Structures are given as C-alpha cells and as structure tokens.
Amino acid sequence: MGIWQTIKDIGSGIGDIIARMVEAHEKAMMTPTPCRQCQQEYLYKDLHPKFSTSFAQRSSFPYKQMWEGKTYLRHHSYCSTCWDAIVQELERQRKLAIHYKREAARVQTHNERALALGRDATLTISQWIATLNRLDWHCAYCGGPYEELEHWIPINLGGGTTAGNCIPSCESCNRRKGNRHPDDIMNKESSLSPEVHRRIKADLQKLHGNQSVVPRVTIKKHQARGQEMELS
C-alpha cells in the first residue's frame, strides 16, 4: 500500500503542476501586450507569429527559416496588420536575394563584418537594392561604375552596415576616401568634396529616413547553431 500511495501522491503532484501551468498559460494568453511594431495593445493570444503553425505555414517563408533554425522570430509579438506587412517584406527580400545573389552575399558579408566590430548590422537586401537603383548603380561620389559597397562613415569610426550609411562606390573613390570621416575631407576639387558628402547624406535620408517596414534585424552568434538572424 505504501508504494501505491507514493505513486498516487506523485501523480497528484504532477497533476497539480500541470494544472498550474495551464492556468498560467491561459492567464498569459489574455494579457494585454503591445505590438512590437505599432505599439497598439492586443491580447497576447492574438499576436503573431503563433506557437502552433500548420505544416504549410512552416514550409513557407519566414516560418521555414524559423523552424530550420536560421531565423529566430519572437512568438506573439506583432498584430495582424504589422505581421502581414513583415511577411510581405520578408518575402520580397527573399525574391530579391534570389535575383541579386551577388548583392545579397555582399550585404551579408558587410553585416557580419559590422557585427564582428560591435557596430549596427541592419542593412537588408531590399534597402541596398533601393539605394543602388536611386543612384543608377553608379558610384555615389564620382558617378563612375559601381564596384564596391562603401560605408559613408567608416566602421572603425562608429559607422554601421545600415541603410543610411551604405552607398555604392567605385574602387578608386573608396580607396581615396579610406577610413576618413566625411567631415575630415576638405578637398573641394575632388569627387569627395564636402558638397558631395552633403548630397549623399540628403539622398540617404530622403530614401530611407528612420523608418522601416520590417523590425530591426540583428545577427547574433549561437554556440549550437552558428549564426542566426533575430527579428527583435
């Protein structure tokens, strides 16, 4: 009898634990929570992405990325309106990355470089293609053929790989500018003149501003899975 009573007590204890977990979960689902994008409050259970997703959803982008461990999405973070916009933008980025493989690899390389130095690494392929299109795929300084991704404010001086700091450049202008801050270049007769830098800054602000459809993207290192992208 002692053994059976012990088993019964253990089972009862486990049942109590499960009941408390279910109660806590139900309470959490009904908690008012702000959307991470628009900051409007919704019930936690109504935010996206959901914990439970169908096979069709998991096989589509961005769910496929999440379940493969390549993308980490915070569950129950975005309202339906913001989530739909995020998914559409991520899908557009996926298509751009397929169409512009070389540029997508370039963006990834420079994001990783900025991350390694502790700088912002938020440039997306859609933002980079938008910058290239605005400048007709020419050097932002001299107007010659575009050859390299240039950090307007060098990474070693605090600049990051961001939409507002990355511009196309030819190899010559990139080498001549080097690691100098735009404010330190006073040669008025060259393609690196202060006037050119003011024009570039205005173009970037007009094109990208301070807003983005998708949330901030950071790259973090994970011991078990290597590198993964996190939408925070």
Mean of pLDDT = 79
What is the helix/strand order? HEEHHEHHHEEHHEE
Major β-sheet strand ordering: 3-7-6
Taking the alpha carbons of the first and last residues, their distance comes to: 55 Å
SS summary, helix count = 8
So what's the oligomer here? single chain
Q: Percent of residues in helical segments?
A: 40-55%
Gyration radius over CA: 24 Å
Characterize the biggest β-sheet: 3 strands, mixed
Total number of β-strand segments?
7
pLDDT < 50 runs, ≥5 residues: 54-59, 65-71, 211-232
Give an overview in words.
- The strands form three sheets. A three-stranded mixed β-sheet has the order 3-7-6. A two-stranded antiparallel sheet has the order 1-2.
- The protein folds into two domains: 77 residues, no CATH class; 118 residues, no CATH class.
- Strand 6 and strand 7 form a beta hairpin.
- By secondary structure, it is of the alpha+beta class.
- It is 45% helix and 12% strand.
- The C terminus is likely disordered.
- It starts with a helix and ends with a strand.
- The protein is elongated and about 95 Å long.
- Helix 4 crosses helix 5.
